[in-house]
Structure formats: C-alpha cells, structure tokens
Write a structure and sequence with these properties.
By secondary structure, the chain is mainly alpha-helical. It contains six helices and three strands; from the N terminus they run ααβααββαα. It has a domain of about 80 residues: Winged helix-like DNA-binding domain superfamily/Winged helix DNA-binding domain (Arc Repressor Mutant, subunit A, Orthogonal Bundle), CATH 1.10.10.10. Strands 1-3-2 form a three-stranded antiparallel sheet.
Length: about 120
C-alpha cells in the first residue's frame, strides 16, 4: 500500500474511533479511555500498572484517566496491604454500575472497523 493511501486509511480509522467515542460519551458519559480503564479494572482491585498494561496506556496517561474517574467517584485508590509501595485501584458501586451499563450497551462498530472485530471474535 502506498504511504499516502496508508495515511488516509489511518485517518478514516481515527475518525471512526472518534465517532465511536462520541457515541459512548453521549450514552454513558465516559470517554473511550475511561471505558477501557473501567473494563481493565473489572470486578477486583488491581494494581495501577495492571490497568496501564491492559489498556496499552503509558503509566502517566493512565494515572490521569484514573484520577478523572476518581474525581467522578467511579474508582478509588488504596495502598496494597502486602506492599505499601503498591497502589491498587477498584471500582466504587457507581463504577460497577457504569461498567455494567457499558457491558449492556449495544455499541455499533463503525464499518471500517468491523473486519478487525470479526477477526478478533473468530479467535
């Protein structure tokens, strides 16, 4: 694929992701990164580094996302009982409710991304 066409395809993917994020914001009040962080945390308390690993975010960016979720009372941080240097993150009741709404929400995958999702779910 020629370089310019590749950039144009990436632009279309970014636009589709932006559309998807706007839909999630409108219906659930979460950015895509916030939604991914809630999914990464899940039902159990996890280390901050786990959230970063599961989302693919850099630690500093992940910390900003977690701080935003914490300000909105969707997550809380606590010091690990076994390793005082470790910070754990868990969902609040409101965070669990929001995660459940996210799981139940019928997300419409943009057409340009359907091959990616089709391939992912075939594995």
């Amino acid at each position: 694929m020629e370089k310019v066409k590749c950039i144009c395809v990436m632009r279309d993917i970014v636009l589709a992701m932006s559309e998807l994020e706007n839909t999630i914001i409108d219906h659930l009040g979460l950015t895509l990164n916030e939604a991914m962080a809630l999914c990464a945390i899940g039902e159990h308390s996890v280390a901050a580094s786990v959230v970063a690993d599961r989302t693919g975010m850099r630690a500093s960016h992940c910390s900003k996302i977690v701080s935003a979720l914490e300000r909105r009372k969707l997550v809380y941080r606590s010091i690990d009982k076994h390793d005082k240097r470790q910070i754990n993150i868990a969902l609040t009741n409101d965070g669990r409710e929001r995660l459940n709404r996210l799981k139940e929400y019928n997300i419409v995958i943009p057409e340009i991304l359907t091959p990616v999702f089709d391939n992912y779910f075939l594995k």
